Amino acid sequence: MADYIYLLQTRLTPAQQSTLEHVRDAARTRGMTIFLVGGAVRDLTTGSPIRDLDFAVQGNATKFKKDLQKAGGTLVGEDEPTQTLYLNFPGGVRLEVGSTLSATYPKPGKPVFKPANILDDLRRRDFTANAMAISLNDGSFGLLMDPLNGIADLENRELRLVSNYGFIEDPARMIRAVRLAARLGWQMEEKTRQRYETGKEEGYISALNPTLRKYELEEIFHEEDPLRVLHRLEAEGWAKVLFPSWTSAKVNEAELDRLRDTIGQLDSMGIHPDPSAAYYPLLTAKLAPKDSQALKSSFARPGFVDQIDALDADTKTFTAQFSSKAAAAPSDAWKMLFAAPPEPVLWLAHTTKSAPLQAKFKAFFGDWSQARQKIPYQLMQEMRIRPGLQGYDQLLETLFFAVMDGKLDTPESAKAFLEPFSPPAPPPPINMRRRAVKREAKVPKPRTKKVAAEAKPEDLAIAASERQTPAAGAKAAAAPKAAAKPALPTAKPTVPAAKTPVVAAKKAAPVKTAGRAPVKATAKPVAAKKAVKAAPVKAAAKPVAKKALAKKAVVKASAKKVAKKVVKPVAPAKKKPAVKAKPVSKAKPVAKKIAKPVAKTANKPKPKPKSKSRR
């Protein structure tokens, strides 16, 4: 159901949608149920152009006559036996409104109709592809009814008879089958084809209903490509049955092809004329006037004859308007083309010999339609004219016509034109956040020799205790390898031999304890010793750790003094090459002498370490 609602909203032209709503309103006012039926449902489903709209009403459809005429429809014909109205609406919309009926055939070609419901009405139709309906009522809008599985035949592109006796009951269906096959490019279903051939051989056509003969003759002029249909009817022998003196040899084919090109151009611009009246003079161009008049009198709908006769007069009236000063500007001419009835517009575009009018139509199909692409959308964005602004759509139309008339050739003229429509700039946003208090940025101190002196007393104690762990021992064992690498970069030139123990001490420190800052090892006293002699620190650090943990409070009080004295920079000795890995084994005695005094004299200031000469 939702699919057909979507198709009804998108496949119909605006004029067809408007007509559909008028018919629904008339049915709602009279309390009747109404359905879209026949070829409209078929074309809507298959994607073919929707040429006309057929409606079926459960009730007497002739009661709609005045209601539809008040809505803007023009009555062009009426059929009392089937209670059918034929009307034309503005925009080239043709429609039929009939009652739902059931039919019986006591004799071929002579039906007897009775009121019935929609399902019985569908079962009396010609082909299954035309026996479908879409509900247009409020409670079931968009509901498809297909009692004979016409969808399957649409998929197979086949014409299948609803009744096995369809060609016998109504011989006009044989002509209709050829006409629909020529238009749609479909084939008859196998059994339907056999019955068709049987009907041709046995002369079913002799029982053709006179009213239906007129209807089928007129329908040729309402086809999208009437010449192709006429050729097909001639090949099957039905053209002689309809009107013997009219053949394809009487047609002006060159002008007919040119007219169809003009129809396509107007359709692409949004103007949808009904070309039936314009086809007539070209399809009968070589027909004698007497035969032409007889042909007009053979049509089923007198209103169609009136359209043919009034076409030249309506075109002359529109030509006078289109050539006047009222259509001098391109925008005025554009508006006039869309406001006028589409049929005179089509006939004037096809028949005019006036150079100014030909130039206007050429510009209409070419340059004028491209003016919408030249609208300054970027400038509109800069001036805060965006979709959603009140009157935005109307402004686009105004700009379209201004560009078409050449009023916005320069950026300055476009800006001046848009200035009255530009809304004021919005106020700046309010910042509710408090300003952050500026604090003096702490300048990071360079990591020089004094870094070790800034270590806290707690860090010294923790570092001593962590030396007891196996991980510290493993890291200390790896210290000789790391000692060969240079220490962290400093501002002053480094002495590789003196700073190697510092690296080893730092590598032993990273283990953190809960609630305490990371330990920074201070090993400046060791700097006086040999750089490579820091490996056995683990053994010498055990007694230091015990006393340091026991006397934590004492260390806190006096560690600052110790750190100050320990950290006093020693005058750098002359740079000597780094000691090779050979003397590593002699580092044990030196490490003991250095580590013990630190723990024992934790409360006393430590004397300056004496620099020892290297061997």
The portion of residues forming beta strands comes to: 5-15%
**What's the story with the biggest beta sheet?**
7 strands, mixed
Low-confidence stretches: 469-604, 610-615
How many domain modules?
3
Arithmetic mean pLDDT: 79
What's the helix count?
29
Structural class of the secondary elements? alpha+beta
In whole angstroms, the N-to-C terminal distance is 103 Å
Task: Provide key terms for this protein.
615 residues; alpha+beta; 7-stranded mixed sheet; 29 helices; 11 strands; disordered C terminus
Tell me what you see in this structure.
There is one protein chain. This protein is globular. With about 625 residues, it is of the alpha+beta class. It has 29 helices and 11 strands. The longest helix has 22 residues, at about 300-325. Helix 8 (about 170-185) packs parallel to helix 10 and helix 8 packs across helix 11. It folds into 3 domains: about 1-240, Beta Polymerase, domain 2; about 370-420, no CATH class; about 450-600, no CATH class. It has helices at about 1-10, 15-30, 40-45, 65-70, 120-125, 150-155, 165-170, 170-185, 190-200, 210-220, 225-235, 240, 255-270, 275-285, 290-295, 300-325, 330-340, 340-350, 355-365, 375-380, 390-405, 410-420, 455-465, 470-475, 480-485, 495-510, 535-550, 550-565, 585-600, and strands spanning about 35, 50-55, 75-80, 85-90, 95-100, 100-105, 110-115, 135, 145, 160, 185-190.
